[in-house]
Amino acid sequence: MAQQTTPMDEVFERRKSIIGIRMTILYSVVYGGFVLLSVFQPTWMGARAVLGLNLAVAYGLGLILIAILFALIYNHLCRVPSNAQSAAGAASGSLPVTNAGAGDQQE
Amino acid sequence: MAIAVFAVFVTLVLAVSIHTNRRSRSVGGYYVANRSVHWGVNGVAFAGGYLSVASFLGICGLIAFFGYDGFLYSIGFLAGWIVALFVIAEPMKRRGTFTFPDALNRTYRRPGIQLAAGLSVLVVSLFYLVPQMVGAGVLVEPLLGIPHFWGVIIVGSVVILLVAGGGMTSTTWVQFFNGGLLLTFAGILSVAVLVRGVSINSLSTEEGVAGLERYRYAEVSAAFHGDELSVDLPGAQVVGRHAVLDRNTGAESLVLYRLERLVPAATAGGGYTADIKGRTAEFESAQGAGWAIEQFDGRPYARIEDWWRLAADGDGTHRLVETQVRAILPGGEVLVNGAPESASNRLRQMGGVSEIPEAYGESTGPLDPVRLLSVFSDRSTVVQQPKSVAFTTEAGERVTVHYEASIAGSEFMRPGLMFPLEAKPGESTTTTLLNRLNFISLMLALFLGTSALPHILIRYYTVPSAEAARKSTIVAIAGIGLFYIFTMYLGVGAVTGGALNPETSNMSAPLLARSFGEVLFAMISGIAFTTVLATVSGLIMAASGAVAHDLMPNLVRRDLSDNTKVLAGRIVAVVVGIVGIMLGIAFREMNVSFLVGWAFAVAASANLPSLILILFWKKTTARGIIASILVGVISSVALILLSPDMWARYGLDPATAPMPINQPGIVSIPLSFVVLVVVSLLTTDKRQIAREAHSTV
Q1: Do B213 and B192 lie in a common domain?
Q2: Chain B: residue whose CA lies nearest to A43
Q3: DSSP percent split of chain A into helix, strand, coil, nearest 5
Q4: Disulfide-capable partner of B606 in A38, B101, B262, B632 (CB 3.0 to 4.6 Å)?
Q5: How far is B249 from B425, CA to CA, in rounded Å?
Q6: Which of residues 592-621 of B touch A (CB under 8 A)?
């Protein structure tokens, strides 16, 4: 069942969803860059990049490691208010405290 | 030993099913494991359910055969989890109760949404089920020596008992164990690959026989006299020729010559044996279809025919290089390398590294993870890539020739060997463009499809809270990410270990394991089995929930009692399981990884636009969602049915297919988004506006 929500939760949910969307967009850019490089400059992908690895291997492994890193960062950012609800309110003070239903909406 | 491990695994799975049966009698128990799964367990179960045989065996095989292009699947399969974590996980958990159609329908409460979404779950589950069941059959065949048909039936029956008996609880435990086993095992194999390092002409283990020298294909010099070719091989003469033409330029890209030649034989029992390409061929009599035993100076020789590949050297001279050949004669006899196929005369394993950077000499010895990849992808490393060509001779003989092509490590480890991304000489710009679009389309579907897969979405409802849903997704990303890094080492290891079965790339990981000994091989057989079980049980669970929770109550238009819902779920699980078994048998020839890409495309087209816009666009209406799901399912499935690959399967010319590319995602995903937006704008939903004012989250 859906849980009980309070206005404070709402604010925090919005904040989380904004963080989530920003991180998704950032990752999409990195991923999109990878796909476009593979498509249009496959020879560049064979060139040496770092640690003796070619660009394809380094970028590919990098995409996996960045995903894990992003996940941990996101979890860290999400953790704050469950320990201290008021801190969350303060942290997202710039966002208006809206009525129930706001969580459905666009950022 | 493989059979013993398999039997232990089956017993364990059935024990889990019986043990969890008591806890699955209520609706909550059957469908969502009482929402009491710990996030850590759920995270590992995510990994265990998500990492299908396509990830485990399919990707390792693709990397081993096509180098870096196989790893592109790893990247796409993992990247999709970013969308799942950041956008889908928590809202889906907060909004839904049992299934994701619940979550979509929370604001609107329209039967239509539940019906459309339930239908899409069913379609995607079945689409994904086919490759898994085919994979099950393909695997048990060589691993356990059971025919494909029985393999599918055994795996299907175990899954049915597992799901119908223990519902989501038993599914969760099987997925959890599978996730743990996969990670541990892939880790152990990767370390073994690193310790072995890269060496040229290393001793390898083939089918349990340790210490075999890697087979070196014979080469003979050949000279042209006009169009006639003569070869420097006593008693051999050219009796046939086959050329493969480049599709774009029309030039001959591969020329094969059929040689009739004599091989020394020995009498054995009532028949003869001969050493052909390192294998012992057996001849029961003195004459057979395609071969004959002849006596010269009182010694027996086998007269056989096989195919050699023409190689041109820079200075105008030519060589013929030995290949491996499997041929089916019009009479049904099967010949391997010109002699009857038998247990001792089979195709050899292929693959290997023939040159490494000079500084290392013959062998690198143990390497660290970065150094291994750097040596393997070096410009001066030469990889032997298995290739094959199949054709029918004028006499009606169906021939498949397997040969090794040398390719620089730096080229093997960059995109382009499987996906033709670069413009080839003579290729039209349209073809190049379409090839590139096809690739972008696949990568888009992988990125957006993961978070829309039904067997992934149902796992959000097995944990107690949104926070637990998030944490388990993070555990999943870490576990799956690590696993996909291992796939790179397994694929590379299969090449360096010369462990490639020329006929199926899917066997690369098991043969790699076998090159380290029978124990690892038995383990991988067992794990391949749990991998199929874990994914298939998740899919059947998702389909069962869709029918019993989303479709049936809305079709009969009344609420069902809890007992009825659980009973219905169990019956649907049995039915879907049986359908899966039948599809698995019917599609046995299908390539496993090929269908998985399509399942992702259908999932992304059908579900993702609704999942995203319902969260972030307040003008989304019920009709918009219904239209988007239906258009997504229908358009993606239709584009697949009209694609060149399917055209080839119907026996038509792929070039005449109405849809020019195989991957539908790049068309159907945006289409589904557009339909959702347009229909929503056309239909402002009064009930929805009223509801929105009251709803929470």
Answers
A1: no
A2: B414
A3: 70, 0, 25
A4: B632
A5: 7
A6: 614-618
Q: What would the pLDDT profile of A38-92 be if each residue is shown by its tens digit?
A: 888 888 887 887 888 888 889 999 999 999 999 999 888 887 554 444 444 444 4
Measure the N-to-C terminal CA separation of chain B; round to a whole number of Å: 55
Interface of A with B in 11-70 (CB under 8 A): 13, 16-17, 19-21, 23-24, 27-28, 31, 34-35, 38-40, 42-43, 45-46, 51-57, 60-61, 63-65, 67-68, 70
Cβ contact A21–B87 (<8 Å): yes
Strands (E), B277-381: 279-283, 287-288, 291-296, 299-312, 318-322, 324-328, 334-336, 339-340, 352-355
Q: Give B547's contacts (C-beta < 8 A, 6+ positions apart).
A: B118, B122, B568, B569, B572, B576
**B599-640: pLDDT as tens digits:** 888 999 998 898 888 888 888 888 888 999 999 999 999 998
B407 touches chain A (CB under 8 A): no
Query: Please, what is the Cα angle at B158 between B156 and B159, to 5 degrees?
Result: 65
Cα nearest neighbour of A56 on chain B:
B414
Distance of CA B13 to the CA centre of its chain: 24
Residue B482 identity: L
Q: ipTM for the complex?
A: 0.84
Residue B437 maps to a domain? yes
User: Cα(A9)–Cα(B93) distance, rounded to whole angstroms?
Assistant: 15
User: B-chain residues within 8 Å CB-CB of A16?
Assistant: 90
Backbone angles phi, psi at B523, to 5 degrees: -65, -45
Give B 488-527 residues with CB within 8 A of chain A: 488
Chain B, residues 318-377, CB within 8 A of chain A, namely 370-371, 373-374, 377
DSSP structure class, residue B261 = E
Q: Where are the domains of chain A?
A: 8-83
In this structure, are B219 and B312 located in the same domain? Answer: yes
Domain holding B287, by residue range, is 209-364+378-408
**Do B296 and B382 share a structural domain?**
yes
Do both B445 and B508 map to the same domain? yes
